[in-house]
Design the sequence.
């Protein structure tokens, strides 16, 4: 009789081979191509191939005025477009030393948090779908629709809002804004526990998440991971807490940090962040201060000579905007430090040693937006 | 024992998830209680007053507009969606040759809806319309002339 157990392990010689994951793979959420080096079904090497959606946004910024840059940042991380707009607006205001009114700060903060919840909702729905639960997608999009309507009522657009301008916001808040936000907060407080019952406790979900894709604290630090990915590994990287901008210094919220470093920890960080964002909205919605929604600015904005850096916390991590100005109406150089690119480097470390199916789950908890990686 | 305990927990969590979906499913098929989709062509869609559909030029009943042809919108536009072709014509009152618009051309296909042109306009001549029926079979129909034929500048509007 043949000893099946031992023969499989010792006699069969295996060979490593390469497999393309993407650019058309549904789990890569866009046009990211990963060249996987596989041994059987185990991933032993990952090499990303970028550039499929590279539009040269940084170069295009050099030919635009400071007002015109903003509409390009919408198209980087389209799920946190408002926060991207704010990063450029804050950088220009910092360079011109303009202090905006309290109303502008509160409007920006509230819109930021709505954008963050919308982004996390989309992530939650799509992540469920990646690992095989179709229902989450329907539920998340139902609730995200409420945010889209809030955005549409005030800014006129659902996704690429271009709402921030240097020195304020494009329009004043719609009179119906506070009522809609309150309705939304009430609704979300009802459905978030429902999400937990539907997915978090599920045995299949737990098996896919717990202990899978562990990102160690040192690795997260070395590879420059930020946002929920780093906070899932126990790093305190929340820019809103460390370097407060807009109205974040006047609201109370907790920085969601988990120690596990695995898929479940990153999942929990984002779920907790949604609760924290609701808390921030609740604190601000009833006391939006009066004041102008645009500060007086010159028609043609010219920055003084020098280098200016502003960082903000998007839904995916730290977005840095670095502007080099030579005193003209166009910037000499603009550099965006996007969160997706650094988090992708961390993925290359985390994904090794897991099966392909696990890699899909790991990628969905990293929450990539490919235009943000490529720019 | 541990094996069966695991199975029991697994079945419990699955039923827990099913209770959430069942909570929506059964009222929906009986009473259509939680239905949120809109049957679009039959039901009118919700359009917000600030919705950025396309840029239009406001005309009054005498076919007069407020555009002086100052080209502020053309300069403000980040990707050249707006082109202004202007001409010089003698003013009927003073007889001086005055700069005015011939055609205000707007490329809807290139527009990114950033509102910079509307912010830049000193005379509030252009504004957003909420028209969302922008789909077309021919790309050339997306290039529009905003000022109507035969229209002229409203009296009293100065740069």
Sequence:
């Amino acid at each position: 009789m043949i000893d099946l157990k031992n023969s499989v392990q010792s006699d069969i010689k295996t060979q490593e081979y390469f497999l393309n994951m993407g650019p058309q793979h549904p789990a890569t959420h866009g046009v990211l191509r990963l060249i996987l080096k596989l041994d059987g079904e185990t991933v032993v090497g990952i090499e990303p191939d970028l550039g499929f959606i590279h539009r040269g946004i940084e170069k295009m910024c050099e030919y635009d005025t400071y007002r015109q840059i903003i509409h390009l940042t919408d198209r980087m991380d389209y799920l946190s477009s408002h926060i991207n707009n704010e990063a450029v607006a804050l950088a220009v205001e910092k360079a011109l030393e303009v202090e905006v009114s309290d109303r502008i700060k509160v409007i920006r903060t509230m819109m930021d948090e709505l954008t963050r919840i919308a982004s996390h909702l989309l992530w939650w729905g799509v992540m469920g779908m990646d690992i095989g639960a179709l229902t989450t997608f329907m539920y998340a999009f139902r609730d995200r629709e409420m945010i889209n309507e809030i955005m549409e009522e005030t800014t006129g657009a659902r996704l690429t809002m271009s709402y921030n301008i240097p020195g304020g916001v494009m329009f004043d808040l719609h009179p119906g804004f506070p009522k809609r936000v309150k309705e939304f907060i009430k609704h979300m407080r009802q459905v978030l526990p429902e999400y937990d019952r539907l997915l978090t406790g599920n045995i299949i979900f737990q098996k896919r998440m717990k202990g899978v894709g562990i990102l160690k604290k040192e690795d997260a630090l070395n590879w420059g991971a930020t946002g929920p990915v780093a906070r899932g590994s126990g790093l305190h990287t929340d820019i809103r807490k460390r370097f407060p901008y807009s109205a974040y210094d006047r609201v109370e919220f907790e920085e969601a940090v988990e120690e596990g470093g695995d898929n479940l920890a990153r999942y929990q960080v984002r779920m907790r962040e949604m609760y924290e964002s609701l808390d921030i909205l609740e604190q601000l919605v009833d006391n939006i201060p009066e004041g102008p929604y645009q500060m007086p600015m010159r028609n043609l904005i010219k920055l003084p000579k020098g280098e200016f850096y502003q960082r903000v916390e998007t839904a995916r991590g730290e977005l840095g905007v670095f502007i080099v100005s030579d005193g003209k109406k166009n910037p000499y150089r603009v550099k965006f430090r996007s969160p997706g690119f650094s988090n992708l480097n961390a993925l290359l470390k985390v994904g090794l040693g897991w099966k392909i199916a696990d890699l899909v789950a790991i990628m969905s908890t990293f929450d990539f937006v490919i235009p943000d990686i490529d720019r | 024992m541990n094996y069966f305990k695991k199975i029991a927990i697994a079945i419990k969590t699955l039923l827990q998830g099913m209770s959430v979906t069942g909570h929506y499913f059964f009222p929906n098929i009986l009473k259509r209680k939680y239905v949120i989709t809109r049957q679009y062509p039959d039901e009118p869609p919700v359009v917000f007053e600030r919705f950025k559909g396309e840029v239009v030029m406001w005309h009054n009943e005498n076919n007069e507009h407020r555009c002086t042809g100052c080209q502020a919108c053309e300069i403000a536009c980040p990707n050249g969606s707006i082109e202004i072709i202007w001409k010089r014509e003698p003013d009927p009152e003073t007889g001086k040759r005055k700069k005015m618009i011939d055609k205000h051309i707007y490329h809807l296909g290139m527009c990114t809806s950033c509102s910079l042109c509307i912010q830049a306009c000193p005379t509030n001549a252009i504004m957003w319309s909420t028209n969302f029926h922008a789909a077309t079979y021919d790309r050339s129909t997306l290039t529009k002339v905003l000022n109507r034929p035969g229209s002229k500048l409203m009296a009293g509007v100065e740069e």
